[in-house]
Amino acid sequence: MVSPTQSKRKALNLYCFRFCLLMAVTVLLLSMVIMGIAPFQLPWSPPGLHTPVLVVEFLGSMEEALMVFGPEKIGLDSVVEGIYWDFGYIACYSLLLTSFAVAGWLQTQNKNLLLCIPIIAIAATCDVFENQILLEITDRISNTIPSTSALNQDGTTEDINFILLRTWVNSKFTAITMVSTLLFPFVMSQHSRFPISSRIFAVATLIALASSLAIWFTRWIMPEVLSLAIAACWATIATRAFYLSRSS
Predict the structure, then answer these.
(1) Cβ–Cβ < 8 Å for 154, 140
(2) pLDDT tens for each residue of 145-182
(3) Phi and psi for 39 in degrees, rounded to 5?
(4) Is 224 exposed, middle or buried (0-12, 13-18, 19+ CB in 10 A)?
């Protein structure tokens, strides 16, 4: 016989999976909006990195930023608009990961899954700080006269901004990868039921772990690999939430 407590737990578990699925759909839609807003071509992209959103996130200096957008500052307004949309994206992916972690805890009573919550908060905080730095940088770019030197008189401040940008970006990706790692035992515990998605999640998590370490040492190539690995992890979570919301 099922106790009232177990019934409530099962109902809450079902609600969390359904909410997770809703957030997954919202994240997908916001991703499409942001990618649609962002310019598909920039005057210059670093070798090995071609995704406009990532190119902007991994800017290393004011000179580089001015090269990316060119003298005409092509796509700058679109990037700024995308940054504002990204604040909503941050909230949605945070809720997506949190609801899945809570659902996993309700189902397995594994308290390690609750460790995801503060790490998700750290990732979201880093992402917010990253956006604030990007808004400062894009504002400086918009006010820079093309014929002048790339660095303004307060070049030291600019250097600090780009160091902070890289710190927040790298920390965000590292924290998100840590969340996937903590979710790994729960996802793999259902390997016999969901063999394909479990394997995808396992491979994507391993790639994300390696890439999240690599981005601290190199800015190019690995960010795109990392973003694709994280996308694969989130897609697996969404798929798992869909099936479990129907059968919990």
Answers:
(1) no
(2) 654 444 444 444 567 899 999 999 999 999 999 999 99
(3) -65, 135
(4) middle
